[in-house]
Amino acid sequence: MRITFIGLGNMGGPMARNIARAGYELTVYDLDPDKVAQLCALGAQPAISALDAATGADVVMTSLPNPKVTQAMATGPQGILAVMSKGSTWIEMSTNNLEVEREVRGAATVAGVHFLDAPVSGGIEGAAKGTLTIMVGGQAEIFAKNEALLNIVGENVQHMGSHGAGYVAKIAQVVLCYLHSVALSEALMLGVKGGVPADRMLSIIQNSTGRSYVSDRYGPAILDGSYDPGFALGLAHKDMALTLELAKSVEATLPMCTQVEAIYAQAVQKFGFDQNHLMAIKLLENANSMP
Ligand code: NAD
């Protein structure tokens, strides 16, 4: 099976490395040639463009920054659907909205290409260890055909339902990460302002009903401000914007999501796209005159 991986960033890079290490015949492409070179050191073949990469592949996997890039990858001037073989499969692993799913899958169907939306959760650590959670939408038989490949990059690979169900599940779960981050920082702030030392407050939260993945994983970083570069603030805001788009398209009223999207939008404007996503809570610290 000839695999192509396009988009070798924080997530796609480690995922592609795991596929190369598993012995698959792998071709890779990224706009950044250094990222391509890193994969070639593991035996992957370099491509000079997305079109070059997708030509002749049985499966193309993509991990791209936003819906616009995914749409262009499908049908733009360098759109890969023009060269993908009939009967081949595109596994799209970015976080995207339903509009992208409908548009890209529609174009894929016309081109005779199967399409699975297969976004991931687990961060760069999960991508490196091959322990990602992967939420897949699309035809059950196409999912079954590609399950072994997906198990190379994830350890919790689930077929969520028909086309688009992967993107919906991803957005509906990831929104909790941002809501919890803001909620955790507000709880910590309340405790600290009330005179409880921050580390004591976090320890109590981690051992009480308010405990969450966010309090365990990000709580210590929030206290000491040591934010790693793993996940960009701008991508976090993209997820929140996708949440509101999804809510609109399925006619769901989500007041907390609306507020948290506004916080992330303001944080991107103030601190920049590439800062760590936890910088959003700096707004709260600033509003409370904390260092
Ligand atoms: P990233 O910015 O690190 O990586 C994106 C990569 O795509 C970059 O290497 C970039 O050069 C490449 N790229 C952009 N346009 C391209 C094009 N036209 N052709 C080829 N390559 C192109 O982003 P990331 O953090 O790896 O995230 C990728 C996707 O995964 C996003 O949709 C994100 O929301 C999602 N995601 C990220 C995380 C995380 O923790 N980083 C977790 C879950 C999901």
List the helices and strands and how they pair.
Layout lengths: L1 E5 L5 H10 L3 E5 L3 H8 L4 E2 L3 H5 L4 E4 L4 H9 L13 E4 L5 H14 L2 E4 L2 E2 L1 H7 L2 E6 L2 H14 E8 L3 H29 L4 H9 L6 H5 L1 H6 L8 H17 L5 H17 L10 H6 L4
Parallel strand pairs: 1-2, 1-4, 2-3, 4-5, 5-6, 8-9
Antiparallel strand pairs: 7-8
Helix pairs in contact: 1-6, 4-5, 8-12, 12-13
EC number: 1.1.1.60
Keywords: NAD, Oxidoreductase
InterPro entries: 3-OH-isobutyrate_DH-rel_CS, 6-PGluconate_DH-like_C_sf, 6PGD_dom2, 6PGDH_NADP-bd, HIBADH-like_NADP-bd, HIBADH-related, NAD(P)-bd_dom_sf
Describe this structure in a few short sentences:
The chain is α/β, with parallel strands linked by helices and 291 residues long. The chain has two domains: 161 residues, NAD(P)-binding Rossmann-like Domain (Rossmann fold), CATH 3.40.50.720; 119 residues, N-(1-d-carboxylethyl)-l-norvaline Dehydrogenase, domain 2 (Orthogonal Bundle), CATH 1.10.1040.10. Strands 3-2-1-4-5-6 form a six-stranded parallel beta sheet, sandwiched between helices. A three-stranded mixed beta sheet has the order 7-8-9.
What do you see in this structure?
The protein has 291 residues and is α/β, with parallel strands linked by helices. It folds into two domains: 2-162, NAD(P)-binding Rossmann-like Domain (Rossmann fold); 169-287, Orthogonal Bundle (N-(1-d-carboxylethyl)-l-norvaline Dehydrogenase, domain 2). The protein has 14 helices and nine strands. The chain has helices at residues 12-21, 33-40, 50-54, 67-75, 98-111, 123-129, 140-153, 165-193, 198-206, 213-217, 219-224, 233-249, 255-271, 282-287; strands at residues 2-6, 25-29, 45-46, 59-62, 89-92, 114-117, 120-121, 132-137, 154-161. The longest helix has 29 residues, at 165-193. The protein is elongated. The structure holds nicotinamide-adenine-dinucleotide.
